[in-house]
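note to self — DONT lose this again. spent like an hour looking for the file last time. sequence + predicted structure for the chain T wanted, 282 res
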Amino acid sequence: MARRKGGFTELLEIASALPWKVAAALIPISFVFFHVIAAASDHSAAPTDVAWLGAVVIRAYIHTFALLFQYLVPFAFLIGAGVSFAKRSRSAKLLDGVRSDPNVDVSGLSWREFESLVGEGFRHRGFDVTERGGAGPDGGVDLLLARGHERFLVQCKQWRVQRVGVSVVRELYGVMAAEHVAGGYVVTSGSFTKDAKAFAAGRNIELMDGKALDGLLRDGKSAVLRPVDSMTVIGVTKLKPPVCPKCKVPMVLRTAKKGANVGSSFWGCAQYPRCRQTVGIG
């Protein structure tokens, strides 16, 4: 039976999973929040009526806990910011190592290092990345990507010999539907089965095998974004993206999520939601 984690430990894990700048910003915010509650609940006068005794006791409890949390919670965010900064520094160093040495075998990394490396690659593609932790080396959603108003989930599979099957892709698709995200990625240092590729086609899931992973890791910051919006769709993967008539930038392939054309593909402006220009395929 798994041992239940304490509240402070869970708070540390949450703080450590946040981008370090976010965790750092929450230090003064959390202090002010609980300090205000402590000041508002301070009522040292003794109750004059028995009927008010319960309310006074509750107020005293709130005051005591707020006094404690105004220091404990910011301290947790302080530690979390430090841990998050250290993880980010390690992942950046890993990425620099891969880019400087073309013979580096990423499949030889630990699964945590592999996930951190993939996350750093997506950061250099313009995404904000939050590590979800997954369930271990072989399960769970590992990364949450964000760009603008859209969110994407990433499942990392550090399999070089074993091919990633359709069950992994189905699992990610189920979580995508439950969390209402724009799309997802399955990233592996190996390859995918035919069933996995067939299931992903047209479902806003991009399968990144060892070759695609190498491109993700070795592209510089100036690399053209290949978001999940430009999913692999049967019959249109080799089409050249048109230029947005309004913004004059290359468009990306998208899939309609609602309306009469749900499931169909179209070209959308890469500047969405600032520009909602669309172009049909064909």
